[in-house]
Amino acid sequence: MQLEIKFKSITLRWFLNIFLIVAIVVCTVAGVSFAVYSNINTERVEDLASDYAYEFYALTGTNRATFKDTAISIAGEFEYKNKVEVQVIDRNGRVIVSTSGFPSSEQAMPDYTEAVETKTTVTKKIATPDGEPIMASTTLIYDNDNNYLGAYRWITSLKATEKLIGNFVIMIALIALLILSISAISGIFFIKSIVQPIRDVSNIARRIAMGDFESRIEINRNDEIGELCDTINYMASELSQAENLKNDFISSVSHELRTPLTAIRGWGETAKMSVGTDEELVNRGLDVVLSEADRLSSLVEELLDFSRMETGRMTVVSQPLNISWLLSESVAMYVELSKKQGIELIYTKPQEEYQVLGDTNRLKQVFINIIDNAVKYTESGGQVLITQQIEEACVRISVKDTGVGIPAQDIDRVKEKFYKANKTVRGSGIGLAVADEIIKQHQGLLFIESTEGVGTNATIVLPLYEPEPEQETVADETKEQENG
Predict the structure, then answer these.
(1) Cα–Cα distance measured from residue 24 to residue 43, given in angstroms and rounded to the nearest whole number
(2) How far, in Å, are 240, 289, 462 from residue 297 at the CA level?
(3) Are 81 and 110 in contact (CB under 8 A)?
(4) Is the Cβ–Cβ distance between 133 and 166 less than 8 Å?
(5) Which of 43, 79, 90, 263 has the fewest beta carbons closer than 10 A?
(6) DSSP string of 134-196?
């Protein structure tokens, strides 16, 4: 009975020290994966719906007299009616038009209520009276004099998204179950490889203790248990020889039992402490797990940052800016880094300065991302060439490197969110996706051309800013007055 308790203790210790930890880690990873996947899909739905409904933001250019007519006009020409419903609400909280064709103010609108109270854009997940999950978002509209005109509210179904998330949960659950099953099965085999030999040793030891000195343990193993078996077999041989020496039996047995009992106790403790040995391996493994946990934590954090960035809709504040100066400032940030890495960074600022209509911070973010990629993927002795030229009322900025290049099969996907062609180099895989979106919002284009082993050429094309004649006249008069 005591032996059974010991065996159960080994199994229990294995469960508590190994299997339970594996289960906690697997469940934690599954939970984090579910949270990240759910956030990404929910944010994707929100971003798409926001993009579809963004043309209603044009209502900010109206006044109280034209607000309703403009809303009806935009709703009539809205081309995404099958993807998202947009309602326009007047300053009194009445729905004056809906892209679904059925305006109603009777339904609950918690997002609108909160938006009015907080004077911010509010997005909420709610349920329709029939239980269908939806996402609704309200954006307040003000005229040029900051007078409140009303709001527009988009509504989209989350039914397909929740089904997708549900399928992902099932997949994660099956993977987690598979991992736990493999862990349990391998653990059972491991425990069996220890417990069964100990039972054999115990049975043979019991038979030897009862006087059957011819019994031997037939276990051929090159480990501690094998050494224990050899010791017990040796004990049996000694006891067999002592059978003919009855006079010396007590002293011989006392001596022979002391040695094997010490060995049995020692190796028994060693076997019992094998969990302790595995625990050290588990602890080292846990250090690795903790180290890896710190890195996810970091993207998610980066993705969460990316998600937060997308949640607020990546807006641009456009104004005339000197694109040559902005590019020069971005290049200057990498001059010292390029020298340290043995990379030749070449950029000649054009004599003429060109203006584009854009957001200084956003465009600088794009330039830094493109230049950083060029420097990052170029080895010592390589070259990064940055040029700027004018073509057909557009400024064409090229960042060409002699780096590792991109495989042909990855070229079409490098601008996708979260996709990385080279996973051995730092980066989140969202930089080019963000840069591409920013350039699109500036009515520009971003091209990536690359040959593996030769280099990559990233080209940004932006339309030049051409002031209207009236603005040019006012500017000339202002200069004449300053000079006069």
Answers:
(1) 28
(2) 65, 12, 36
(3) no
(4) no
(5) 79
(6) EEEEEEEEE-TT--EEEEEEEEEE-HHHHHHHHHHHHHHHHHHHHHHHHHHHHHHHHHHHHHH
Q: How crowded is residue 382: how many other Cβ atoms within 10 Å of its Cβ?
A: 20
Would you state the pLDDT for residue 22?
Answer: 79
Q: Of 167, 180, 222, nearest to 197 (Cα)?
A: 222
Burial class (CB in 10 A: 0-12, 13-18, 19+), 377: buried
Residue 330 and residue 327: Cα distance in Å, rounded? Answer: 5
Burial profile 399-409: b = 16 or more Cβ within 10 angstroms, e = fewer: bbbbbbbbeee
Can you list the residues of the chain whose pLDDT is less than 70? 1-16, 102-107, 195-196, 213, 219, 221, 223, 241-314, 416-430, 469-484
DSSP 15: I
Tokens representing residue 432 in the block: 């080019």
Q: Which residues contact 344 (CB under 8 A, 6 or more apart)?
A: 338, 382, 383, 384
The strand ranges marked E within 310-366 are 319-322, 344-347, 355-358
Contacts of 76 (CB under 8 A, 6+ apart): none
